[in-house]
Amino acid sequence: MNEIVITEVTVIDLRFPTSRESIGSDAVNKDPDYSAAYCTLETNSGLEGYGLTFTLGRGTELCVMAIEYLSRFVKGRTLDSLTENMAAFCRQLTDESQFRWLGPEKGVIHLAAGALINAVWDLYARAEKKPLWKLLAELESEQILSAVEFRYIDDALSRAEAGEILKEAKRGRAERLSLLQREGYPAYTTSVGWYGFSDERIRELCRKALADGWTSFKLKVGGDAKDDLRRGRLVREEIGWTNKLMVDANQRWGVEEAIRHTRELAELDLWWMEEPTSPDDILGHARIRKEVSPARIATGEHCHNRVMFKQLFQAKAIDVCQIDSCRVAGVNENLAILLMAAKYKVPVCPHAGGVGLCEYVQHLAIFDYLCVSGSMENRVIEYVDHLHEHFSIRYGFDEEGICCRRWRDTASKSVRIRSTAIAIPMERCGKANS
């Protein structure tokens, strides 16, 4: 077969007016328009690779421009030349000296790198005719390790330690895969509790979610303390006390505020408190976690890179690690974070919602279960029930399909995983396939 050569990279600015109905709203981001800078790798073979980075509307054009700039590192290259040493390819993007000055490894440039890296992985998966999770799961350990950038984190996780984690996780992998195919992976819904929703709408959505089989729910908080508690009680009235309830402050508070408010919400029997303070405040999270126990602390969707996650683990600052599929440098950097989380025994519950994030993160969570952590204990994937109609499935469902179940619910009430690496927007391929 002729070598696959990337001949062109196109990038579009894709936006949805979700702010009209307060979908996605929280205490900090009150008017988000869920959007994506979406890139397509065109090749001489007819195959295309797709990647995106998620935004809230304004500023998406900056990510588009950054992706277009970084595309010079893939245009004209063979797929094999990129995948034979993925860590080296990633370093080309993150170490471009003048662009690196704008980061390094954070912000708009890193978001752009994530989109481009994910697009390469998508093309790789399509060339192999596999969903991304299966491609990753079938790579040799050395291939996985060669995709990980150990620079800056080898004081917390050495290459040898990562290799041992992958080796240990091979035990029982076939049984875990069989379980996934039978029962799916646990998920929770955020769709019931956006910040701008009225009490009536929250009640209605809770009832609908319960009828659909959901048993884990998340509510946005971060406003007036009494009102947060009142809304939390409202959700508890609807979902009962046997189901799980998480709350998300979206970085609204300072450290002492976060401690006080988390304690005030303790009567709701929180499964976790998410993003209680600045995502950059490692020691602040550690203090909050210590002082609000037994409430668990979750964060990660706004962590710039693997170095921040390293420090969160080292400082014992979080109980739940929330990776994001394109906040960091795509699949590669998330592999590093998953391996560190396994070493420090912190469960990974990916952040999703947004545009395409639900389609993305399921592959990472499945790979984590099969090949890294080997556990579903205290783990769920975030699911937001909107915008999926704008994505299409290239290969359709087959024997490799896996369900994303609603915590303990049966596969008959499940969310089907896209069986390709990354879904395709209908703007790119017309009528959706299934």
List keywords for this structure.
434 residues, alpha/beta, Enolase-like, domain 1, TIM Barrel, 4-stranded mixed sheet, 41% helix, disordered C terminus
List the helices and strands and how they pair.
Blueprint lengths: L5 E10 L19 E9 L4 E8 L4 H11 L8 H5 L2 H9 L2 H4 L6 H22 L3 H7 L2 H6 L12 H11 L3 H11 L1 E5 L9 H14 L3 E5 L4 H15 L4 E5 L6 H10 L7 E3 L7 H11 L4 E3 L6 H9 L5 E2 L8 H14 L13 H16 L8 E3 L7 E2 L10 E3 L8 E3 L7 E2 H4 L5
- As a percent range, the share of strand residues is 5-15%
Helix content: 40-55%
Shape: globular
Kindly give the count of domains.
2
The biggest beta sheet, please? 5 strands, parallel
Which stretches are poorly predicted, pLDDT < 50 over at least 5 residues?
Answer: 394-434
Instruction: Write down the CATH class of the largest domain.
Output: Alpha Beta
Q: Strand order within the widest sheet?
A: 5-6-7-8-9
Give the N-to-C terminal Cα separation: 28 Å
The CATH homologous superfamily of the largest domain = Enolase-like C-terminal domain
Structural class call reads alpha/beta
Total count of strands:
14
Question: What is the fold named in CATH at topology level of the largest domain?
Answer: TIM Barrel
Radius of gyration: 21 Å
Q: Output the number of helix runs.
A: 17
What does the average pLDDT come to?
88
